[in-house]
Amino acid sequence: MSSGDANPAATPMPCEDVQGDGRWMSMHNRFVSDSKGKEPDVLFVGDSLVQLLHEFEVWRKLFSPLHTLNFGIGGDATQHVLWRLSNGELDHISPKVVVLWVGTNNHGHTPEQICGGIMAIVHLINQHLPQAHILVLGILPRGKTPNPLRDRNARVNALVQDELASVSYSSFLDVDPGFIHSDGSISHQDLYDYLHLTPHAYQKVCEPLYKSVKALLEMHAP
Amino acid sequence: MTDNADATLLGVMSEDENPAAEATALLDVQGDGRWMSQHNRFVQECKDAEPDVLFVGDSMVQLMQQQEVWRQLFSPLHALNFGIGGDTTGSVLWRLQNGELENIRPRVVVLWVGTNNHDHTAEQVAGGVLAIVRLLHTRLPKAKTIVLGLLPRGEYPNPLRDKNLAVNNFLRASLPRTGPVQFLDVSGRFVHSDGTISCRDMFDFLHLTASGYSKIATPLHELLLQLLEETPQERRASLV
Question: Rounded to a whole number, what is the distance in Å from the CA of B3 to chain A's nearest CA?
Answer without folding.
Answer: 29
